[in-house]
Amino acid sequence: MYNIAEKTFKEALKHAQNVEIYIQREKTLEVDIQRDRIDLAKEQHLTGLGLRVIEDKRMGFSYTTDMNRIEDAIEAAVFNMRANEADENFKFSKPSHYPHVKKIYDKSFHDLEVADVHEFAERMINTVFDEGCEPTSGGFTASHLQTFLLNSNGVETEYKSTGFSAHISVNAKENNFKSTAYESDASCLMSLEPEKISQAACKIAKNSIGGERVETDDMSILLDYHAINGILATFTSAINADNVQRGRSYLRDKIGEEVANPGMNIYDDGRITGGLYSAPIDDEGTPSQRTPIIEKGILKNFIYDLYTASKGKVESTGNGMRSSFSSIPTVLTTNIILDFQDKIKIEDIRRGMLVTDVLGAHTANPISGDFSLEANNPFFIENGEIKYPIKKAMISGNLFNILKQIKMIDSRIRQIGTFITPRILIETIRVIGG
């Protein structure tokens, strides 16, 4: 990748004062499950180059997957640069010390073949049948990514990472009743256990068969890991500096104020060992770091890339991220850690509802924090005991209000999506019965 980057870099410097080369080389092994069959198993290889140029405070961008058409990509980037408006906040990263991030690369990936991912999927399917359920869909993906970044400020860095993810959806039937459930898992290491993923999905599905109605009322809500990821997605929008600067965040003027439970801390940490979004650098070349967002309930920071940091007259927090080489960096979270001073046991819940997952998280208002979501696979809790499944229920509330009520349930720490968290309890929220 260095030779490609150097060639592009030297040629681009003939047309612009500031140049950044971003290259990704990816290998992916993937298998899809449709009902009880493996629908597709494939291996893909892709190399892509993203090019940014800056001159006279104007920036241009282009990308290519054809390394024989580098000159066309340079021409396109320069054309875009000249057509864009000047903005003094366009920046490239500068050389720095980069942290060593552990357990984000598993060399055993290189021993995998399509037959191995096929076998993984078969084990998930077979376990579903062994548990007395039916698979409806699923999949397994293993990927290896090499990332290289070079810019005219003297930054030259690269790293490699791996990712493994699996998911399964199942049906469970008993007499005339049917229920569905979903489970997934992901890791930077090849540590996933297909049997456990399928067993977890089947357990939820079987326990959800039948169900009783619940009356509309205020009660405590125990959020499982997938539900946390859905409900707290709005929070990541609120701490995004781009939304803050555009006036699209409820938290925009609340730095230094108490916005959450005083016993709770929230961090964005791009260097945590084994984090799904950990790396030594962000996608602009800024070193990854641990950024305190909330400490003892007090809002401390937002997250920034280089552009929003320049606008805000602060330093980047290492949150300039790209979806791929084909896009420019934007502000995104890495790994969001929820840390609590105190914890309670499920036995302490007198009356409440366990919510396994939620539907409709994308409909939550990202500015006000208001939401009304369907509870997926909910269960009624009484005196710390899960009594029975609930047929249908909605939960309605405001994210920024419930942040002040959140408590940690004594449970294992798990990462689903961007959130690394235990199960959590919301003391009081509106439950709308079906």
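Second entry:
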Amino acid sequence: MVRDKVPATPAIRILKASKVKFTPQFYKYEERGGTRVSSRELNIPEHQIIKTLIMEDDQQQAFIVLMHGDCEVSLKHLARQLKVKQVTPCVPEKADRITGYQTGGISPFGTKQPLPVYMEETIADLETLIINCGRRGMLVEMASADLVQILNPIKVSVAI
């Protein structure tokens, strides 16, 4: 899928304001397709595509977890590292409401409510990564160092 104009999502505005180099990547979105579909459509290793997951702790405090597309989050290890009793994924309706984005297009940049960001530590080892930028079917390729600079995420080791 080719588009001439990049939609001005809050995420795109933040990337432009931060003066980081990024390349939009468009693909045909499939409901519940996840990173498997974007990997296939863009011919990019799924490990390089970063999921933006909205989670909450046992006090219903929401936060973001960034994870490789081909990995899952160990909720038990994450809870232990965050020193909370339990971590669960937010229901899509809550995730949409607090981020201002639609599930399947949630970006860690420019969320409606500021949220703490936790990142699987090995993401920083990637030279470049692909991440959602606020619309279903639209990702951006950028340097992982730029993501770290903008978001200042807390690194965790929770991939399984």
